[in-house]
Design a protein that fits this description.
- It is a single chain.
- The protein is of the alpha/beta class and 505 residues long.
- Helix content is 57%, strand content 7%.
- Helix 2 (12-33) packs antiparallel against helix 3 and helix 10 (166-182) packs antiparallel against helix 11.
């Protein structure tokens, strides 16, 4: 087993700062819950010889624990850190350790905060920075956990920042009192102050509703999801199930495309999938959760009942995607880095948690680098792409018109929302006329809400100059102009019924 002689290697200044940081935190809790007098008594721990000895033993236990536990995962990194005599003098490591000790409720209750850090100056010759970061983070956690579980400190940490039942709180209080009483070397006034603090924190926790500031916040999910423009998501149960299966961590499908004609509901399906992961985060098995869900959209226009309007924001380049990722993951270092370094920083940021990245409306992206980035996205990232065209790098989920029952439900929902009275026959005619295309259904009911009767709306649906026709097909037609496919499309329009291959030449 590898040995870290941490007491010989750790700078005395860092040890002193670590002791002062933890003691100050506990004394502030005493000031908050009890009095300035008891807070002052607890501050005496800073110079208490018995506590300093216990603190040093905690540091050594943490080092031994890391060496034993992490060697199973990465023996080489443990050996490298053990051999690095300057490791504990590293400024990045020292800053991170003090930050975790200063805010245990933020860092230890929410591991995401620790994972957001990187340690480029630790073992700088190592190329695989992710391995180094993971090892340093594991060491930091061991140090913080062993320190905060010292009898003198545990009440301020465990009772406040660990979720427990009322019975669990009472049992923990009794246990901690026994342990505090057993610390014979601790001065009586400090011990008494810590016992009173233990009771005060427990009482606050046992109050109805407790102290919301004393509980760790739920684990944060980084996301920038827009709000859906529908009140409830209708239909597409098979497709939702299929996409969910493809996004499981054990599948080898890293990129999923949702493709189909304009207005078929690609963006809505992708957004519903994303919101479903967000809504059900606590109910999902831990391995299936996404700790980050990032939405990027290249959609340039939207269709409403009033017509086609331009979107205020849409991505055009890979740099736009990087900027969105940096903002969502709260990584200010990415936009500050040199342009040539940003892609690697983004990749590192994505690997720190299981991330779902959605690229909406890929066909309107101007930058060919986007496709290369999607193709080479780092594990464990999963990507959903919505597009009117299929990609050879992804598993396709093809959308067609909604089933009649689902389409009629959508028509009824929209009619109720717009105050439109529709007979069952009119609803079925609208379904057949739209082919179950969701956007066409929503647009048609919106037109009725503006005063157009059913017949007028059904007629407008067949006009090539209508907003719905332009929105669904104009972009696709523009892409094939001056190509043989465009001439073929024009030729097909001359046939009143289906055309054979022979007739088309």
């Amino acid at each position: 087993m590898f040995q870290f002689d941490i007491l010989a290697l750790i700078p005395q200044s860092l040890k002193r700062q670590a002791i002062d940081t933890t003691v100050d935190f506990v004394s502030e809790q005493a000031k908050k819950f009890l009095s300035d007098e008891l807070s002052t008594k607890i501050k005496k721990l800073r110079s208490d010889a018995a506590f300093q000895a216990a603190f040093a033993e905690g540091l050594q236990r943490a080092a031994d624990r890391f060496a034993a536990e992490y060697a199973v995962e990465d023996e080489d990194l443990v050996a490298a850190l053990a051999a690095d005599k300057t490791f504990f003098q590293n400024e990045e490591f020292q800053r991170a350790l003090l930050a975790i000790l200063k805010k245990p409720g933020v860092y230890l209750a929410n591991e995401q905060e620790i994972l957001a850090q990187s340690f480029d100056s630790v073992l700088p010759t190592r190329l695989n920075r992710e391995r180094v970061n993971r090892a340093v983070i594991a060491f930091l956690k061991c140090l913080a956990e062993e320190v905060w579980n010292l009898p003198e400190l545990r009440p301020a940490y465990e009772l406040q920042f660990q979720r427990m039942t009322a019975e669990g709180i009472r049992e923990q209080v009794n246990l901690q009192k026994v342990q505090l009483q057993a610390t014979a070397a601790l001065s009586a006034d400090i011990r008494d102050a810590l016992l009173q603090l233990t009771d005060a924190i427990a009482e606050r926790k046992l109050l109805p509703g407790g102290d919301p500031l004393a509980l760790p916040a739920p684990k944060k999910v980084y996301h920038n999801l827009p709000r859906p423009d529908y009140e409830r998501f209708v239909g597409r149960k098979a497709e939702l199930k299929q996409v969910g299966h493809l996004l499981l961590p054990q599948t080898r499908h890293f990129v999923v495309t949702i493709d189909g004609i304009g207005g078929i509901g690609k963006s809505a399906l992708a957004l519903e999938v994303a919101h479903s992961y967000l809504r059900h985060y606590d109910k999902l098995p831990e391995a299936e959760r996404f700790e980050a869900i990032i939405w990027t959209s290249a959609k340039q226009t939207v269709l409403t009942g009033e017509g086609i309007t331009l979107r205020s924001q849409s991505l055009r380049t890979l740099d736009d995607i990087f900027a969105t990722i940096a903002i969502t993951l709260e990584r200010e270092d990415i936009p500050r880095a040199r342009v040539e370094e940003q892609e690697e920083l983004v990749r590192q940021a994505l690997t720190r948690q299981r991330t779902l990245l959605i690229v909406d409306n890929l066909e309107t992206v101007d930058d060919e680098r986007v496709l290369a980035f999607i193709r080479e996205a780092p594990d464990p990232t999963k990507i959903i792409v919505t597009t009117r065209h299929r990609l050879d790098i992804a598993y396709p989920v093809r959308l067609v018109g909604m089933e009649e029952a689902d389409a009629l439900t959508l028509i009824a929902d929209e009619a109720k929302k717009k105050g439109v009275a529709l007979t069952a026959d009119a609803a079925r005619r609208l379904y057949r006329r739209t082919g179950g295309v969701p956007l066409a259904i929503v647009w048609s009911v919106a037109q009725m809400g503006f005063g157009y009767n059913v017949e007028a709306v059904l007629t407008r649906l067949g006009q090539d100059t209508s907003d719905i026709a332009k929105f669904c097909f104009e972009g696709a037609v523009e892409r094939i102009k001056n190509k043989p496919a465009y001439k073929l499309l024009l030729a097909l329009s001359l046939f009143a019924t289906d055309a054979s291959r022979e007739a088309l030449g």
